[in-house]
Amino acid sequence: MIRGAVWKGSAGSINLLHGAWPWSSTIRISRPIHGKLLRNMKLIPAVILPARSLAGNRLLGSRLANYGRKTSMHAYGLQTIPNTIGVFPTRGIASDNSDNSGQERKQLHTWQQKLSPYARLMRIDRPIGSWLLFWPCGWSIALSTPAGCWPDPYMLGLFGVGAFIMRGAGCTINDLWDRDIDAKVERTRSRPLVAGEIAPFDALVFLSGQLGVGLLVLLQLNWYSILLGASSLGLVIVYPLMKRITYWPQLMLGATFNWGALLGWSATQGSVEWSACLPLYVAGVCWTIVYDTIYAHQDKVDDLIIGIKSTALRFGDNTKLWLSGFTVAMVGNLIAAGLMCDQTWPYYTSIGLIGAHLAHQIHSLNINNPKDCATKFISNHQVGFLLFLGIVLGTLYKKNSEERLKTSSTGSGSSSSSQLSAAVTSARNIAV
Question: Where is the composition biased (Low complexity) (predicted)?
Fold first, then answer.
């Protein structure tokens, strides 16, 4: 079976049979084509079938008839010229199942298009923010764990969900405040509110849902923790405004992001142990200033143009010196928190590793390279994990060290009592 085309021109009818189905390699020309005729030719799709094939295949002939084709005999076979441009279908009539599956795929695609802007509004595609919000909660929960025990997995899971929801709510609030600013910054122009994918009213409704879910999570805790957690909502709302007022918005972000260092302890113990939690909280604030200053260096050119303030602009070329100072303050407060909790050597080892990590991060930082700043910022997830791991291992090691102390004290007590009894026995012998 050969597929072809028919050329027609003003000088007469010339048939060019060219192209073949995959199983045919024949190319036939019914009449030579001259250059003068070629100028006036027009291509009309056609189907060329051998005469013997059509003669022996009534079904194919009826199919041709159904497609409304004119047929004419040709020296090389049967030439058919369609009344309308068309081709034979590659498959039969689609079944109901295939139609349904196509509709389901279309509906799924539609739902994905509707949900995608809200997912990006929550920064689901950038989970680093949720981790940075969770780690202070995890540190506090692990520090409050009794010696020799693992952190409460239920509390860790609950705070993980809460960190995910509240980070998303914070991003929604931030984008609602900063619609005018984000439109002027290259990195943020594609955000859903700026691009018009979500209306401000819809974002407010979505924010109400996020805060509702966050409240449900908070209500799983004790009343002390509920009041303490609710008091942080003011920081969440006010933080986005700070970049318009002060060069220290990162300080306000640190105060907001590390509230979990207080909340985690109260959730497990019923109240905050300030002697341990306050140094942990201050260490977290210093850490936030370090990583968010690095993050802010990505947008410092745009910030200068539109008049937005940040520690990146405040520190300028002295950024590495400032970040080194905050790193020292962070390490010092972590050591103080460990001393208040009677932590052991795995905890202090993790602090040493964190100090080395941050020192390398600051030393190799290129504040004029946005890509390098983004990479350094994301690597702070490792800092949070290292400290959490050190707290867990240090707390587990406490039991072993306490047992050794008890054993040694018991041994020394028994030896002293034996010495005393021996002295009394000898005194009796002398008296006799």
Answer: 407-418
Quick one: which of 376, 244, 378, 225 has its CA closest to 310? 244
Task: Tell me whether residue 162 is in a domain.
Answer: yes
CA distance 214 to 133: 14
Considering the entire predicted model, what is its pTM?
A: 0.70
Sheet holding 28-29, edge to edge: 28-29, 12-17, 2-9, 42-49, 77-82, 69-74
Note whether residue 308 is domain-resident: yes
Residue 344 near residue 397, CB atoms below 8 Å: yes
Is residue 26 within a helix (H) or strand (E), and if so which, with residue range? none
* Mean pLDDT value across residues 6-24: 40
pLDDT at position 399 is 76
Its domain, for residue 260, covers 116-399
- Closest C-alpha among 130, 139, 197, 132 to residue 169: 130
Residue 424 lies in a domain: no
What percent of the chain shows pLDDT beyond 90? 56
Structure tokens at 156: 């860790």
User: Is residue 347 scored above 90 in pLDDT?
Assistant: yes
CA gap 162, 267 in Å, rounded: 13
Measuring CA to CA, which residue among 204, 116, 130 is closest to residue 162?
130
How confident is the model over 204-235, as pLDDT tens digits?
999 999 999 999 999 999 999 999 999 998 89
Question: How many structural domains does the chain have?
Answer: 1
Virtual CA dihedral for 357, 297, 323, 277, nearest 10 degrees? -80
Q: How many angstroms separate the CA atoms of 277 and 272, rounded?
A: 7
Q: How many Å separate Cα 171 from the centre of its chain?
A: 13
In angstroms, the CA 182 to CA 121 distance is 13
Tell me: pLDDT of 5 over 90: no
The reply to whether 9 falls in a domain is: no
Long-range contacts of 155-160 (CB under 8 A, 24+ apart): 155/264, 155/267, 155/268, 158/217, 158/220, 158/221, 158/267, 159/134, 159/260, 159/263, 159/264, 159/267, 160/134
Number of H helices, E strands in the chain: 20, 6
CATH number for 375: 1.10.357.140
- Length reported for the chain: 432
List the structure tokens of 194: 């700026």
Please give the residue that has the higher pLDDT: either 53 or 368: 368
Q: Could you count the other beta carbons within 10 Å of the beta carbon of residue 54?
A: 17
Give the Cα separation of 159 and 266 in Å (integer): 12
* Cβ(276)–Cβ(263) below 8 Å: no
